[in-house]
Amino acid sequence: NMLEESGPEWLSEEVKTGTTIIAIEYNGGVVLGSDSRVSAGASVVNRVMNKLSPLHDKIYCALSGSAADAQTIAEIVNYQLDVHSAEIGEDPQVRSAATLVKNISYKYKEELSAHLIVAGWDRREGGQVFATLNGLLTRQPFAVGGSGSSYVYGFVDAEYRKGMTKEECQKFVVNTLTLAMSRDGSSGGVAYIVSIDEHSTEEKVILGNKLPTFYDQ
Amino acid sequence: MATLSVCRPPVGGFSFENCKRNAVLENEVSKLGCNLPAARKTGTTICGVVFKDGIVLGADTRATEGMVVADKNCSKIHYISPNIYCCGAGTAADTEMTTQIISSNLELHSLSTGRLPRVATANRMLKQMLFRYQGYIGAALVLGGVDCMGPHLYSIYPHGSTDKLPYVTMGSGSLAAMAVFEDRYKPDMEEEEAKQLVRDAIAAGIFNDLGSGSNVDLCVIMKGKVDYLRPHDEANKKGVRTGEYKYKRGTTGVLSKTVTPLDLDVVEETVQTMDTS
């Protein structure tokens, strides 16, 4: 039958951010990184999406999984943190932001399919990274997530050292993203890096041709 | 044996009772051997582009019901507010009603704030509604407009995710249209260049996708001005018949003719006036 049903399946398929996301803490701040590919079935619908979403001035979250679920959670928590920080009269703690994300992820864990990594800097504990997969809340020195993360667990476990500087962390993040993007079909595009410390929040984009090259390139 | 049943507290969120009912109905009907009527889809090509002074939105004009074209010239560019328009792909009824609901709410919101509505507001309202219905409302939209912060273009997916980009395409013909955009898009184009690019992108969808066809509609939105060009390009004009195919009187020979007048009497005559004031 030459005539297929009008409309490809990806039109009705959910839009996913088949992704690689990573966050790492150093003494004085955090570095977050993500790729930029959004897919619906086999089609890439956005090749430049910034998956590092601000929850507050010094708290960001990295999105993965279903695009709609992840975007909605990030926007809801952004709103809740605005209210919370107005109520306490100061900048919120990273743990508070992570708890708000965890509460939504846990309560609706059957309905949602998104994983957010929350990372940021606050005055009390400095740089912190929290994983909220499936509704747990755990602080980690670094966290990776998304479909591309499976390909780089070995790399991050081998290469991570305690006490890295900010520049070493940024390099670590870029290398991890590059390796994951080249092996995972659902990750790709450009690399977004966000570095948060006491003094500033710096957003950077690294275009595809400026990423580091490894063995097979 | 009596069982204790605890009264369930009301659960928040969307109630899927009607969806269960629809599934049962569909089962019953298929047991009788017939199908429920298919929802009319706009197997579509829609797209939008940001140019120097504003936004150009484009759409084809074919609406399909299964494999049959239900409407050869339907309008897929919907009004949201004087400075914001929205193209819709997916289920025709869903895109029509969703855009009308948000247009109405946005007008009330605009009266309340006393300001021209912003595209980001329309985007939030649409994505929150579509997320609430968890993708069951099959509306894939391209939302574009010009507000006090400049021109903005969003693509909105049925499950409620949105992307803010300088050029977007949606619908079954979106891959064909995106190919044209990826080749020829430049930032800060002039109006004529942008209109030609959008027209070509929609034409790529019309001629290479079975679900899209007929004409190209354009909507150019600039600060303080909207050009709704329908049709902008009649890419598929109905052909003119080259010959007369009627049989002339006398082609078929008449062998015999019988005329029987019917004897009808007027029994009752009533006049009912309609109040058409």
Automatic annotation (TrEMBL), chain A:
What catalytic activity is recorded?
Answer: Cleavage of peptide bonds with very broad specificity
Q: Does the keyword Glycoprotein apply?
A: no
Q: Where in the cell is it found?
A: Cytoplasm; Nucleus
InterPro entries in the record: Ntn_hydrolases_N, Pept_T1A_subB, Proteasome_bsu_CS, Proteasome_sua/b, Proteasome_suB-type
UniProt keywords (A-Z) are:
Cytoplasm, Hydrolase, Immunity, Nucleus, Protease, Proteasome, Threonine protease, Zymogen
UniProt record, GO biological process: cellular response to lipopolysaccharide; immune system process; proteolysis involved in protein catabolic process
Q: Which domain of life is it from?
A: Eukaryota
Cellular component GO terms, alphabetical: cytoplasm; nucleus; proteasome core complex
Q: Which residues form the active site?
A: T19 (nucleophile)
GO MF annotation terms? threonine-type endopeptidase activity
Q: Please give one Pfam family short name.
A: Proteasome
Gene3D superfamilies, alphabetized: Glutamine Phosphoribosylpyrophosphate, subunit 1, domain 1
Q: How does it assemble?
A: The 26S proteasome consists of a 20S proteasome core and two 19S regulatory subunits. The 20S proteasome core is composed of 28 subunits that are arranged in four stacked rings, resulting in a barrel-shaped structure. The two end rings are each formed by seven alpha subunits, and the two central rings are each formed by seven beta subunits. The catalytic chamber with the active sites is on the inside of the barrel. Component of the immunoproteasome, where it displaces the equivalent housekeeping subunit PSMB6. Component of the proteasome complex.
Family the UniProt entry places it in: Belongs to the peptidase T1B family.
Function according to Swiss-Prot or TrEMBL = Component of the proteasome, a multicatalytic proteinase complex which is characterized by its ability to cleave peptides with Arg, Phe, Tyr, Leu, and Glu adjacent to the leaving group at neutral or slightly basic pH. The proteasome has an ATP-dependent proteolytic activity.
Q: What is the designated name of this protein?
A: Proteasome subunit beta
Q: Which organism is it from?
A: Myripristis murdjan (pinecone soldierfish)
TrEMBL record, chain B:
Q: Name one GO biological process term.
A: proteolysis involved in protein catabolic process
Q: Which reaction does it catalyse?
A: Cleavage of peptide bonds with very broad specificity
Presence of the UniProt keyword Protease in the record: yes
Task: Give GO MF terms, alphabetically.
Answer: threonine-type endopeptidase activity
Where in the numbering of this chain does the Proteasome beta subunit C-terminal domain appear?
235-271
Signal sequence bounds? none
SUPFAM superfamilies per UniProt = N-terminal nucleophile aminohydrolases (Ntn hydrolases)
One Pfam family, short name please? Pr_beta_C
Q: Where in the cell is it found?
A: Cytoplasm; Nucleus
What keywords is this UniProt entry annotated with?
Cytoplasm, Hydrolase, Nucleus, Protease, Proteasome, Threonine protease
What GO CC terms are in its UniProt record?
A: cytoplasm; nucleus; proteasome core complex
Q: How does it assemble?
A: Component of the proteasome complex.
Annotated protein name in UniProt: Proteasome subunit beta
